[in-house]
Write a structure and sequence with these properties.
Elements: E1 3-5, H1 10-18, E2 22-24, E3 33-38, H2 44-56, E4 62-68, E5 86-87, E6 98-101, H3 117-129, E7 134-137, H4 139-149, E8 154-168, E9 182-192, H5 195-200, E10 204-209, E11 213-219, E12 224-227, H6 237-247, H7 269-290, H8 293-300, E13 313-321, E14 324-331, H9 337-348, E15 355-359, E16 370-374
Parallel strand pairs: 1-2, 1-4, 3-4, 3-6, 4-5, 6-7, 7-12
Antiparallel strand pairs: 8-9, 8-10, 10-11, 11-12, 13-14, 15-16
Helix pairs in contact: 1-2
Length: about 375
């Protein structure tokens, strides 16, 4: 199924060249998953492409929303590219179904010394309160474990760097369906958390390596998927990191288990596709539980005259208002008045719906425009 990205985002062209189905965000179908990407990696464009490839190969249609901690040094990302990004504070306003948080080159700092740590901790709290699944990668996996469970990371005597085999520990877990008993994973980190420490904290360890420690874990209570390694990496990513470290005069050895000459294979790609597919299936189940099926079916109905979707949905949530259950729909701007009126009548004709309230975006206070229609009227 397609992934929805901004039309001018470099990842859009790169993924289409690979055959990944990409739609412009303004062509989004109503039935889709809204996925937030908190991109803390220095080379943001590469990370967008890598994660977009995995999301775009899944059966679900996803729209990717990009966020970063504004003011942070973007290093290898041009300032012009950051125009595609919203600040971290905007995450809670997008009606997201799930959140992906990437790694960051701050592993050797205490969490509290990372400038954006309070914002990230608040996001994890928001996700937990709203039952929003999170998928955290590398440093972010350690950050989630520390925030949710108080488990600290441990510095390694030398950087774990290369492609290492991992043993599957829980093949019955939903995240690991179809994954082989042993699989390779790219590893690039200065810290780790031992499997026994994670298990003692009430978190399920799903895969680990004898040389590289914990690789994949799942915190069911917080619906937090923890990927301590980099299944999203391309064939040449580790080599690029090695050359970058050498240029910076860092004592990084060549990556273990990786052929440095010629076109390297990507033996971890199948595992990456399966894990992301399994994760998105869980995200979809939670999203469906939040969205009333009958309303969603209406939103998916085509306009007979144009063949287009009648209403471009941004988000749908349940809320309690004045002791009653309300369904809050957020639509793309520019929906014709006739379509809004037709949809309101459909809603009012439905058993259990007593009132439809409309608010126009951009209006507030005394100038707020609201239109209420009651069944009795």
């Amino acid at each position: 199924m397609p992934i929805l990205l901004p039309e001018t985002l470099p990842a859009t062209e790169a993924l289409r060249a690979e055959g990944v189905p990409v739609l412009a965000a303004n062509l989004a179908p109503a039935r889709r998953l809204e996925i937030g990407l908190v991109n803390l990696m220095p080379d943001k464009s590469t990370t967008e492409t890598q994660l977009g490839r995995l999301l775009g190969a899944a059966p679900q249609t996803s729209r990717l929303h990009l966020f970063w901690p504004q003011g942070e040094n973007s290093r290898r990302t041009p300032t012009s590219h950051l125009e595609f990004y919203d600040p971290l504070e905007a995450v809670t306003e997008r009606g997201l179904d799930a959140l992906i948080i990437t790694g960051a080159p701050v592993e050797q700092k205490p969490f509290e010394e990372v400038r954006y740590w309070p914002l990230l901790a608040a996001l994890y709290d928001w996700a937990r309160a709203g039952s929003i699944p999170t998928l955290s990668i590398c440093w972010a996996a350690m950050a989630a474990l520390y925030h949710y469970r108080g488990v600290p990371k441990r510095a390694l005597p030398a950087k774990a760097f290369g492609v290492f085999d991992q043993a599957l520990l829980d093949p019955a877990h939903g995240l690991m369906q179809g994954i082989q008993k042993s699989f390779p994973v790219p590893v690039s980190r200065h810290a780790h958390v031992a499997p026994k420490t994670i298990s003692a904290a009430g978190v399920t360890v799903l895969a680990c390596g004898s040389e590289s420690s914990t690789s994949i874990a799942h915190d069911a209570e917080n619906d937090a998927t923890l990927l301590f390694d980099h299944l999203e990496y391309d064939a040449g990513t580790l080599l690029s990191e090695f050359l970058r470290d050498r240029q910076a005069a860092l004592p990084t050895p060549p990556p273990s288990g990786l052929a440095l000459g010629g076109a390297a294979a990507v033996p971890w790609r199948t595992t990456a596709h399966l894990l992301f597919r399994n994760w998105l299936a869980g995200v979809e189940r939670k999203a469906d539980a939040r969205r009333p099926r009958d309303l969603l079916d209406w939103l998916l109905a085509s306009d007979a005259a144009t063949g287009e979707l009648a209403l471009p949905l941004v988000a749908m949530r349940r809320r309690a208002i004045d002791g009653a259950e309300a369904i809050v729909l957020t639509l793309e701007p520019g929906v014709p008045e006739t379509a809004l009126e037709r949809f309101a009548k459909l809603l009012l004709a439905t058993e259990g719906v007593s009132r439809v309230l409309r608010r126009d975006a951009g209006m507030s206070g005394a100038s707020l425009v609201a239109q209420a229609m009651d069944q009795a009227a």
